[in-house]
Structure formats: structure tokens, C-alpha cells
Amino acid sequence: MADQPQPEGEEAPSPPSPPRRPISARARAAFAAVRDYLSPTEPQPHAAGARRIWLIIAYTFRRWLIEDRATALAASLSLQTLLSVVPVAGLLLTGIGLLGEGRSQAVFEDISRLLIPDPERAHRITEAILGLAHNISVERLGVWGFLSALVVASLVFTTLEKTVNRIWRVTRQRSTVSRFTMFYTLATLGPLIVFYSLAQPVFAAIDRMSLAFTPILTTSVGLILLNRFMPATSVRWRPALIGGLGSAVLFEIGKRGFAAYISVIANYESVYGSLALLPVFMIWTYCSWLLILLGVELAHVAQHINVVAHDGYVHASARSGAHGDIGAGRIAARIMLAICDHFDRHHAGSTIPQLEARYQIGFTRIAGIIERLAAAGFLIETSAEETSLIPARPFDQIKVSELLALFEGGDVPGLRQGDPLTELFLRRDAQDAALLGGLTFQDLILRARRDRQRPGP
After folding, report:
1. Predicted pLDDT at 210
2. Do 444 and 360 fall within a single domain?
3. By residue range, what is the domain housing residue 361?
4. What is the pLDDT of residue 302?
5. In 3D, which of 85, 73, 74, 77 has the Cα closest to residue 152?
6. What is the spatial distance between Cα 301 and Cα 323, in angstroms, rounded to a whole number?
7. How many CB atoms lie within 10 A of CB 261?
8. pLDDT(5) > 90
């Protein structure tokens, strides 16, 4: 029988798609096993060898991408870099000019080749920045204009400091004078310029030997120092070395990969013309900050590796059985009592790793509660061998009821008339107030002291 012609204006019906084969139970089980092995949701306290290394890497990447949202942080730093690069270059010219005329171009060329993947674009970007940076002077801008340029130049430093402190869960801030002094020292590159001048013959000899590790060595030194001194807390040299070397190696690998990308795949000149330097500079700046922040995360994990081990190498937010059943107020009260008791007995502060090892509820949750206690004036962070916590007030001025109200006080807005839960909550609040009364942490410390002195049975 001949096929019937289709009416004009109507499309022929598509043939039915073959039915999809259901995934077998064995395939689902295999997929679940691989997923649980690569990204477990249960603590792995007995992991060792390659398994332990993989779990530490997964833990670090989760903090980097999910917990600390490195993509958003790197985007913010990239924008600040774009705004600050010309004022910072102007300050650099001021410092480099002290070494004599003609040195600025050479130093900038070396820095650009060190940081920017493509040599040709590095030269063009250097010329563009130098052409603008020569305008950053008191003679051209005036006093107020020059001070404004200083403020703009410090944006990237301020943003980087806040970002690093956020990764390290540090709430203590440096003073404005200390921050500006550190920024201006870094911005004028005094130590680096002196080091460059003294070591230039050595670097020239190394270059003649064509050793490929020279850029990695220079980048590593800068990133190690950043990990060691940028956080407003004490960072040991070993974690700083691990974070700095790790991000430096990734940085050099990324440079070569990005150079291949822009030379083979991305032909920005055909689209943007003379403005092609801008997207190249922005994309590479974004990738660079991502790798630098990964190094900061790596340094943090290396310094708190004992805490990671207590977490079973699985971040608390990734666990299937998270500790959401424990009220934040109860945790805060126990943390506060532990800090007060330790300070009363040893006249020293407590560290977050010590508290996490004692209560084992996850570094992130303890750090968040401590941040809130410090903001409310219950705790003070001190800088010693490692950032420690001490009570911000005398024990007899810290009421248990005030601390609990910080986490559990209040009710939802927009309550309906005659809501039955309102009466129940009011009665419970009255009972809690009668039970706690004016109880302070001084009273709790005295009770603990009496219990320790009481002879055993």
C-alpha cells in the first residue's frame, strides 16, 4: 500500500524513540560504591596511605570550592586587581626609581614574564601599565589625588587580607597603621628590589644554564611569604611551605596551559582587536587568584591536619549524619566554660584545634560559634605561637543566660493572634530564667574547682 502524502503545512510524525534500558541494580551499586569511595559521607578515621592522601585532597577542594566559595572570592580579587594595578605600578616606580634611571622597565619586564603566561602579551601589558603608571605622582595628581591613588592601590591588599582571614576563620583584624605599613612595604617592593639588585648576577648565571626551576623558585618564595604573614594569626613555616610550594607548582602548570590556550584555541585579537589584552589579563588574573587561594586552603589544612583527622577526613557539611541535633547554644556554653576553665587553671588561652579535639563536632562549626562569641564581646583572640582565645570579661560578668540568648533568644516575626506555641515558649523562657537566674561562669568555675578538690571514694 502506497504511503499517504502528508497534508501541506503538517510535519511528518517522528518515529517513536526506542525505550531506554533501565540501569541495572548492579550498575547502580557500582556507581554508589565509586561515589562513596571518592566522596564519602561517613568519617574515615582509619584511612591510611594513598587513601588518606586522597581524602585530604578532597577535603581541601571541598573547603576551597564549596565552603569558602573560591570562585566568588577570586572574582572579587580580580576586579580589585584591575582597579589597583596602575596605582600599585605607580608606587612601584617610585620605589624602583631609587635604584637609578632605566631600572623600572627591566624590573617590570621581569615581573611580567614571571606572572603572565605569554611573553609577547607580557611585554605589551607592561608597556600599557607603565604608560599609565608614570602619571601616578604628587606633581601630576596633587596631594589629595595621590592619596586617593594610594587608597585605590590598597584595595586589592585589603580584599586579599580579608579573604585570607576568612579562609583561616580569623576574626581579629590588624590595626589600620599596621595594615597600611605592611601594604606600603609590599607595594614599594623594597626588600624585593634589594634582593633583585643583589641577586641579579646569580639569576643571570642560572638563566644561562637554562634551568626551568627559576620561575618556580621565585614564585614559591612570594607565595610562601604570603601564606606565612598575610593571615592575622600565627602560621607555622611548614604549612606555609606546603601551601606556597603547592600553589607555585600549580601556578607554573597553569601558566603553560593558559599560554597554550590563548595561542591555539582563543584568538582574542580577531574579536577584540587592540583591546584583546584586557580579556587575556582578566581571565589569567582570575585563574591566578583561584590557584593562590587553593594554596591558602592547603596551608590551613596542613596546619590543622589533626583536626581534619578528628573529622575523619570528611568535612562536617558533607556528612550524612551531621551534628544538627546539637543546639548551638549548648555548644557555645560548653566552649565558653572550657575556655574560662583553661584560662583559670593555666593563665593561657585555648586554641580551636584543642576545642575541636575535645568536643569533635567539626572545625567549621566551632569556628563559626567562636566568631559569633567574639563579635558579641564574650571572647578575645590573642596572637601567640598560635591564635588562642581568652575570655573578654571577668568570669563573674559573663552570664550563662546572656550567652544562651545570643544563640537561642527571640522568636519568628509575624505571629498570629492566639498562637498556641507562643504561650508554651513564654513559659519555657520563664522556667529557664528561674533556673539560670544570675548564674555566671565564675559560679561554674568554682563548682568545677570544688569537684576537682573533692576526695574520691
Report:
1. 42
2. yes
3. 328-410+419-453
4. 92
5. 85
6. 21
7. 17
8. no
Backbone angles phi, psi at 100, to 5 degrees: 120, 160
Mean pLDDT score across all residues of the chain:
75
CATH code for the domain of 441: 1.10.10.10
Whether 117 has a pLDDT exceeding 80, the answer reads no
Q: CA–CA separation, 167 vs 68, rounded Å?
A: 7
* Assigned domain for 341 exists: yes
Query: Which range (74-78, 132-136, 202-206, 336-340) has the least confidence?
Result: 202-206
Q: In the numeric block, which cell numbers belong to residue 298?
A: 592547603
**DSSP states along 403-452:** HHHHHH----SSPPTT-HHHHHHHHHHHHHHHHHTT-BHHHHHHHHHHHH
3-class DSSP assignment, residue 330? helix
Q: Provide the pLDDT for residue 190.
A: 46
Q: Which three cell numbers stand for residue 170?
A: 580569623
Cell 596551608 belongs to 299
Question: Are the CB atoms for 79 and 349 separated by under 8 Å?
Answer: no
The beta-strand segments (E) located in 209-314 are none
| C-alpha closest to that of 337 among 456, 446, 452, 453 | 446
The separation between CA 321 and the C-alpha centre of its own chain, rounded to angstroms, equals 26
Give how many domains the chain has, as a whole number: 2
Q: What is the reported pTM?
A: 0.70
Is residue 435, in this structure, part of any structural domain at all?
yes
401: enclosing H helix or E strand = helix 400-408
The whole-number average pLDDT for the span 415-426 is 78
Instruction: Please report which helix (H) or strand (E) contains residue 49, including its range.
Output: helix 49-62
Residues 164 and 289 in one domain: yes
**Residues 217 and 334 occupy one common structural domain:** no
104, 86, 85: which is closest to 94 by C-alpha? 104
| 168 secondary structure, DSSP code | T
Q: For residues 17 and 435, give the distance between their C-alpha atoms in angstroms, rounded to a whole number.
A: 70
Residue 299 belongs to a domain: yes
Buried b (16+ CB within 10 A) or exposed e, 292-301: bbbbbbbbbb
